[in-house]
Amino acid sequence: MTVIARDLRPDVHADLDGFVAVRRLVLPFMLLSPESVAHEIAHAHPRSALRRLVAEEDGEIVGTAEVGIAYDSPEPGQGFINVYVHPQRTHRGAGSLLARTAEEHLAAHGATGFYAWVLDDPANRAFAEGFGYTASRSAHFLRLDLAHGTLPPLATPPLDVEIRPGSDFADDPRPVFELDAETMADEPSDIGVEFTDYADWLEGTWQHPLFSPELTSVVLVDGRPAAFSAARTDDAGRYGTVMTGTARAHRGRGLAKLAKNDSLHRARAAGFTEAFTGNDTGNGPMLAINKWFGYEICATEVRYVRELT
């Protein structure tokens, strides 16, 4: 049986469905859809050198990879490679072929560092180490049962605080962009992020097919956005928090809790049954907030790094 690696064809439904099927098997706690994959390819920043690869065995998609340059990082040359193989199609060369193809692509675009997320189990870690990668930081995936769990009661905001849905900013999302940019800059990561391109953020975040402005909650202090919890949803009753943060000047007041609690309550009222999120293991404050809500760790991944000389 022959395994080949090639680019995903975003205009071919079978490719999109196959890509999503593999990813959902390996990462059931991450939200994606054929529409979201096609959108991300169509609206990729030119400097990202983004590619979505598939490994195909006798006409069946058995592996996937996403590869590109972290163009919004203040440190140039940082590339990312995330390889996932169908659990019943491992040890047939698909993962190795995808990894080699991805590395060649990044090297051709001047990358000097390769960063890969790997699920924390012996086989995956050994695979990364076999390619010369070394373990760096780690992160948790967390799950909350919205259908049967108990959320903290909604609290009355202080007099200077107001909570509004993200959809209220539909005519002008720039204040949400500015808040997202400030909070993302402080996220623990081995690849820094600087949001400076508003048009790119609109396409990649605000107009993303899974983004839900209706379930995103924005906390205003004296009429200005100070904290938010950004939500995505899919057609399987799943809700995900992709970012929760507070502007530096307003931290320590519990505003992130207010935003996330408001969003979670509205997600449950809208019929969503599962909530997912993710946190760097070094992000103690956010892990504590999610534990307070009742989230439980459902998986851990490790960032592996390979520096080119």
Automatic annotation (TrEMBL):
Domain of life where this protein originates: Bacteria
CDD domains linked to this entry: NAT_SF
Domain N-acetyltransferase stretches: 6-158, 161-309
EC class of the enzyme, as a word: transferase
InterPro entries in UniProt: Acyl_CoA_acyltransferase, Bact_Acetyltransf, GNAT_dom
Record-listed E.C. numbers: 2.3.1.-
Keyword S-adenosyl-L-methionine assigned: no
GO function terms (MF aspect): acyltransferase activity, transferring groups other than amino-acyl groups
Keywords for the protein's UniProt record, in alphabetical order: Acyltransferase, Transferase
PANTHER family: ACETYLTRANSFERASE, AMINOALKYLPHOSPHONATE N-ACETYLTRANSFERASE-RELATED-RELATED
Protein's name in the database: GNAT family N-acetyltransferase
